[in-house]
Automatic annotation (TrEMBL):
GO biological process entries: intracellular signal transduction
Protein name per its UniProtKB record: Protein kinase domain-containing protein
A GO MF label: ATP binding
Residue sites binding ATP per the record: 230
TM regions (residue ranges): none
Swiss-Prot/TrEMBL keywords: ATP-binding, Kinase, Nucleotide-binding, Serine/threonine-protein kinase, Transferase
PANTHER family membership: MITOGEN-ACTIVATED PROTEIN KINASE KINASE KINASE 19-RELATED, SERINE/THREONINE PROTEIN KINASE
Organism annotation: Haemonchus contortus
Region of interest (Disordered), ranges: 1-22
Length: 462
């Protein structure tokens, strides 16, 4: 194949930068066109369906229009049990439940409109797993003795070991409630991961979801309270064992990151059927629970919370970590009403492990349109969109498109203009902040640090 090249009298390195970029774009587009021309055309009579169940991947073809009942019958015959179906896009960036014919039709329409060549389904079987642990039992006093997972330090870890870089004047370790200086420094990166407690007692359950349950725990040796997330795993499953090992490593490495706006990971332990992730205990619960209890928040409080979340995101993004699941349930409050970001850097692996339970709870309402449309991989600007949705939730008491089921909401977010219906009492500067964060054109949407430094909402007292 002939590859376009520049003239011998004009070396590529001597071309102006714009000319280099234009030549590169033309060459890349030419290669894309060539590859597309070699692909067989997508059939409008037959739909290819790729399915994944507990690491096993299969591909089938079904005649259009695809019947939900026929698809369910096929899965019942193949697996001998009722199977839950989830539309999946990319590498798990989008996972939405398919429960009826209408939702299946919408998923297929998204496949066709976005130019995908097949419908990808993530399959799972719902099963109840006990909240206790099989091999690790407490002693008569109720104390667990855990084995510490040792993970070798990697000097090449892109998310750790970065030098401290300041975007602005440091406001110290304050809660950033002044609205004048926003602390988005990189903060401390510990050379050693924190260790999970050796002896600890379990108290009450303080939360549960698709990824497992969270309990209040007491470290017998230090006397501190902490939170422990229990993630069930199926023993003797090779694919899930790899995911579990990857999650253990990630949590250990992420534990080295320290910043006042992120929830600290405190270590990880593994039993035969559980992964236990120990975290800093946030006494105020989640922002989602707080909004459900008190309703919409004032402009001043919503602005402070948004600034604190953006501070945490700026830190994570500078350390090459994309959260992928920013939402009010993953923003936790302390006793003073300040917030921190939780569950960063581990969501995808936890999602893979959760699929064994068939208990996905879609957060599609927070997902950026470019991710839903497959225009780009999940990036830092998608996190910023999710902050915008959370800000609207704080100001109104509910997320945009709340009245739509996940698949219908996905369609609305992907193809319609953002819905930002704010009360008339909301200040214009806060309304503008919502629009900036939820700019549908991701190329024009700013980074977290840019919003903090440049938006008028953060240049004056709240």
């Amino acid at each position: 194949m002939d590859v376009p090249s520049t003239s011998a009298s004009t070396p590529q390195s001597e071309l102006p930068p714009l000319a280099q970029n234009e030549d590169m774009k033309k060459m890349v587009q030419g290669l894309k066109d060539l590859m597309s021309s070699r692909r067989p055309p997508v059939s409008r009579d037959v739909l290819k369906i790729k399915m994944e169940y507990l690491g096993e991947k299969r591909c089938i073809e079904m005649g259009r229009p695809v019947s939900m009942k026929a698809l369910e019958d096929h899965l019942q015959r193949r697996y001998g049990k009722a199977i839950n179906m989830y539309y999946q896009q990319g590498k798990g960036e989008v996972v939405v439940s398919i429960r009826n014919q209408d939702e299946l039709d919408r998923a297929i329409e998204v496949v066709d409109r976005t130019g995908q060549r097949c419908l990808r389904l993530l399959l799972s079987k719902h099963q109840q797993l006990s909240t206790g642990m099989t091999e690790s039992r407490p002693d008569p006093s109720g104390t667990y003795t855990g084995s510490i997972v040792e993970v070798p330090y990697s000097v090449n870890c892109s998310s750790c070991g970065a030098s401290r870089v300041s975007f602005s004047k440091s406001a110290g370790d304050s809660s950033c409630s002044s609205g004048v200086q926003w602390d988005i420094d990189e903060r401390k990166l510990s050379a050693q991961s924190p260790r999970a407690p050796t002896h600890w007692k379990e108290a009450k359950c303080i939360g549960s979801g698709a990824f497992g349950s969270v309990y209040l725990a007491y470290d017998v040796d230090t006397g501190r309270d902490l939170a422990v997330k229990k993630i069930p795993i199926i023993p003797d499953n090779r694919e899930l064992s790899r995911e579990a090992q990857g999650l253990e490593f990630d949590v250990q490495e992420l534990g080295r990151l320290q910043h006042p706006r992120i929830v600290q990971y405190l270590g990880v332990q593994k039993t035969s059927d559980r992964i236990l992730i120990f975290m800093e205990y946030m006494t105020g619960g989640s922002l989602k629970e707080h909004i459900a209890l008190v309703g919409s928040l004032s402009d001043a409080v919503a602005k402070r919370h948004t600034a604190q979340v953006l501070e945490g995101l700026a830190f994570l993004h500078k350390n090459h970590i994309i959260h992928r699941d920013i939402k009010s349930a993953n923003i936790l409050r302390d006793s003073m009403g300040n917030v921190k970001i939780a569950d960063f850097g581990s969501g995808k692996k936890m999602q893979s492990l959760a699929s064994q339970q068939g208990a996905f709870h879609s957060t599609i309402h927070y997902t950026a349109p470019e991710v839903l449309l497959g225009k780009t991989a999940y990036g830092r600007k998608a996190d910023v969109w999710s902050v915008g949705v959370t800000l609207v939730e704080m100001l109104t008491g509910q997320v945009p498109w709340k009245e739509f089921e996940p698949m219908a909401a996905m369609f609305q977010i992907a193809y319609e203009e953002p819905r930002i219906d704010l009360p008339p009492t909301v200040q214009p500067v806060m309304a503008d902040l919502c629009k900036v964060l939820m700019n549908k054109n991701f190329e024009e949407r700013p980074m977290a640090a840019e919003v903090l430094l440049n938006h008028p909402a953060f240049k004056s007292q709240p």
